[in-house]
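Course assignment 3, question 2. Fill in each field.
Student: A.L.
Task: Predict the tertiary structure for the chain below.
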Amino acid sequence: RNDLLFTGFAKALSRGLDARMILLERANSPDQEKVKGLICDLGISANVEWHNSEEPTGFTWLELSRLYKSADVVADQFSSWFGLCAIESASSALPVLNYLEPEAVRIMYPGGHPFVQTGTTDEVCNALLMLNDASHRRSIGRASRRWVLRYHDRYVVARRCETMLAALGIS
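Answer field:
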């Protein structure tokens, strides 16, 4: 489903978006060569940069932090939930593109979430064009950071774990 990002990005570029996409090289990634082929086929290679970690074990937290700080928008997973990348990006006050299963989100986060939902190529394209407005992008970024602090701050998570352990009779 990550092909949605690349095809949506290509469509946004064709509609006038002036942007570059930064992708992370990962050793042993089963999809990386397919992605490179798709990027070439879409004709967007000039707008895509691949970054490698300086460490043989992969990207360090410091390297990722620098990448987040250099980004305007971060794309996470499009597979119906979010990963740590979404949390870290949102905590950096960045808008996050992804696709979340609506019913699961309704149950887990009844107050909503700040993630920009992009389940189709057109939605990715339109979201990227919308987020080209710096003021709108910053507004979503600030909302993202508030949401992370409300639901995923380490103290909040620790209290939630304590509650679950207590419910199991473990203290």
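Instructor remarks: The longest strand covers residues 21-24. DSSP finds eight helices and five strands in the chain.
Grade: pending
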